[in-house]
Predict the structure.
Amino acid sequence: MNRSETAMSFFQNAPSLERLVYTSTVPEPLGTVDLFNILNQARQKNAIHGITGHLLYADGKFTQCIEGPPAAVERLWQSLLKDPRHAMFQVLERGPTDARRFAEWSMAFSSYRYLNAFNMPGFFPLDANGQSEKSVLMQK
Ligand SMILES: Cc1cc2nc3c(=O)[nH]c(=O)nc-3n(C[C@H](O)[C@H](O)[C@H](O)COP(=O)(O)O)c2cc1C
């Protein structure tokens, strides 16, 4: 392979899709309005940047899956780390992927039914095990 073929092969094989799943803890309990605002802002920005995913809020903890072009995932990750609404981050999974798990959601959301007072679209209520039909898809 000559130099330009090597470069071409690098770009063809470069991952175009990345997934990051993390957990974080909230310093203070969040209410319906706080969560509604986070989701609204997230969905608007994610639609622009090609990010899809899922956010779970239960027991004072977030678990979020973000998937999209690697540069967009990294940009969002840096914003998330600086956001004072949550802390104590733990990355559960990060790496290239072939397919999105939440292709149809700019950010699906699972939480307790009572936290959906605004009837948000893309809301999935938690069952007795603290999971929803969508939140289970975040697990490997
Ligand atoms: C739990 C949680 C999840 C969030 N998810 C997203 C998201 O999916 N997309 C997004 O753009 N912002 C999300 N945000 C907001 C970002 O942390 C950040 O405030 C926003 O992207 C604006 O960042 P900037 O000021 O660096 O542009 C989330 C915030 C929290 C607390």
About this structure: Residues 32-49 form the longest helix (18 residues). The first strand starts at residue 18 and ends at 25. The chain is about 30% helix and 30% strand.
